[in-house]
Amino acid sequence: MQHVGLLIYRFYDVEKHDLDEEQAVKQLNAEILRVYAKDGCRCRCSIGGCSPLLWMLGSMHYHRNTLANLGDTFAWYMEHFGSDMEAQHHKDSVRFMTFEALRIPHTCCNPGSWGLSRPSYGFEEIQEIEEEQAALLEILEDLVKEFEDKVVGILEKETTETLAALGEFWAGYWCDRMEEVLDDLNGATISDEERLAAERIGVTWDDELEDEPDEESEDGRFDIRYWYRRIDEIV
User: What's the total number of domains in the chain?
Assistant: First the structure.
């Protein structure tokens, strides 16, 4: 599914689209959202495991990993694909995107699902990581509650402007709030002792980006028809 995320990411970067291709991408995204299967991961980026939507978002986030770009990208996703999302998809997105923005280490059971090199953890290792990240995980849960309340409030209004309002939430409120939180974590308002304590639980103080993975197609996985076949196999 990471390749579908890259396909959508590439679609975002093209100003003009072939109408047939645009429709095909929208149909593929809708098919994927209908497959609400989770893999049973124990990672706080999700509740109950990773879903196809989260695999896509993971890949999109990896290529848009500054807050402003990430917020704009997801606002664009809302505009083009949000009409196919259920309330739970929105909640899952809130948790995942906020987890990523806080740069908390993943403990997903399929570490290579986004085409990235990540370690695989056993139960005791996951428990140890969660203990080490306890402070950030507490911040995560508070933010998820805050953001979910905002998103649910928008969805409950059920107006013709719902998707636009969701886009404004991601590009505006979510992005601004996360910048505020990260500024605090990055030491703008903390003492040297607090800074050292934060570093011990895994907080980093730079904005260095990881090297981007090779985006070349493997086994035709950037082909839309490939993913329709895979979905048929699942369902």
Answer: 1
